[in-house]
Amino acid sequence: MKAFTISTTLALLTSLVSAAPAPAGASAPYQIGITFIGAADAKFTQYFLTNGYGSGIYNPLSVSKISNPGGATCYFFGINGSQTQVPSGATVDVGPPQQLSYGYCY
Q1: pLDDT tens-digit profile of 70-89?
Q2: Which of 1, 5, 10, 101 is 20 to 30 A off residue 70, Cα-Cα?
Q3: Which residue in 78, 84, 85, 82 sits closest to 100, CA to CA?
Q4: How many helices (H) and strands (E) does the chain have?
């Protein structure tokens, strides 16, 4: 019975520790909203984490410009082979305009 009580207490303490909030000063990955612009001012915004993890882009818009409000440098890849670097705070052209498939920021 004593072993059961000890193992139950340990399991309870373990679950409490794993549910504890992050320590002060720790931050969750930041994310930024990148705006993709096509013809006739058609546009959409998608959020990307700034920790370097990539995200798929599933909007069919043929993108001609990408606007980055600042906070990270981002890289985007098109379905026809374009590779576009978008520095923090910049708007850049995608050449040639095309649907994008993937991007990441850091």
Answers
A1: 999 999 999 999 999 999 99
A2: 101
A3: 78
A4: 1, 8
